[in-house]
Amino acid sequence: MRKKMILTDPAAALTRLLDALEVVLVESSDEEIMQAAMDLGMNPQMKGSAAFAGIKYRTKPRQSDFYDIEFGASWPKSLQLLQRQNSKDTDEK
Amino acid sequence: MPQLKPFYGGLVLLPAETALALKLVTETDLLRLKAIARLHARGLPADVSWDDLLQEAFARVIGGARRKPDGVSMVVFLSGVMRSLRSEHWRRAQLESRDSYALRRLRDSEDSPDPERSMIAWQEMARIDRLFADDPVALQIVLGLAEGLSPDEIRKISGICKTDYDSARRRMRRALLREGLTSCEKK
Q1: Do the Cβ atoms of A28 and B32 come within 8 Å?
Q2: Residues B71 and B137 in one domain
Q3: Cβ atoms of B95 and A31 closer than 8 Å
Q4: In chain A, residues 30-69 whose CB comes closer than 8 Å to chain B
């Protein structure tokens, strides 16, 4: 058995890793999925929940779809608020 | 009782029955598939997003291009379809990149890894590593999985006991689900 782990082809390694992580996700229970959604501030039981964006309905086009930008804390408060309103990343409580 | 017909030596469901099986996919299954689609979209060419991958998988199954074998759950089946779609997209991207003179020069031979794909793969591996940055056991598991090792081999090489391995796997699942269900990024 090999003692040392050496990655030769990164693409092949990524493929192996993604296939293995797919199994990890397939095994996830309904409770774990609901919990993960709740952690993100989403309530999948709500009609039109953000959790189903891209599955049940199309996501609204956003600036981040076209530009490689990150809305960080350095942005002015007004812009952060505007961005939050435009992208419904979380469900309203 | 679904109507079955032989297909490559096994039994597969007919498209109508497959469509019926699709109706039985629950909302939690959809979220599970979303997380899997986001995983498989990692490192794909920029014009392919996770929702393209998921919708294409559904379209192929509904259209009858992919037949669901009997006894396989729809989530496992759709995950497999997305996996093969990912390979398809990469093959297409690789063929397109072969036309580029600069990339051809970078390759030693036709069999050597595609430099563009290698670079993207490294970036994606680094992103996955960052997901588990605070979890050394999970990182060891990730490294082992990337190397194609079995859980037993990973535990043996890294000296992780079964309980720690299972706990780390659960933590990994939680992190992957949180990453997979978020809706703030396109990919």
Answers
A1: yes
A2: no
A3: no
A4: 30, 32-37, 39-40, 42, 44, 50-56, 59, 64-65
Pinpoint the alpha helices (H) of B67-161.
74-98, 101-106, 115-131, 136-146, 151-158
Domain that holds residue B180: 132-187
Pick from B22, B26, B28 the residue to mutate for testing the A interface (most A CBs within 10 Å): B28
What is the ipTM score, two decimals?
A: 0.83
Q: Is residue B102 part of a domain?
A: yes
Counting residues of chain B whose pLDDT is more than 90, the rounded percentage is: 48
Helix axes B50-63, B74-98, angle to 10 degrees: 110
pLDDT tens digits along B117-175: 888 889 999 999 999 999 999 999 999 999 999 999 999 999 999 999 999 999 999 99
Using DSSP, state whether A72 is helix, strand or coil: coil
Exposed e or buried b per residue across B121-153, where buried means at least 16 C-beta atoms within 10 angstroms of its C-beta: bbebbeebeebbeebebbbbbbbbbbbebebee
Q: Same structural domain for residues B101 and B152? A: no
Report the number of distinct structural domains present in chain B: 2
**What is the number of alpha carbons within 13 Å of residue B19 lying toward its C-beta?**
8
pLDDT value at position B5?
45
- For tokens 């998921």, the residue is B54
Average pLDDT rounded to a whole number, residues A63-92: 60
The band of B67, judged by pLDDT with boundaries at 50, 70 and 90, is confident
Domain boundary among B71, B92, B108: B108
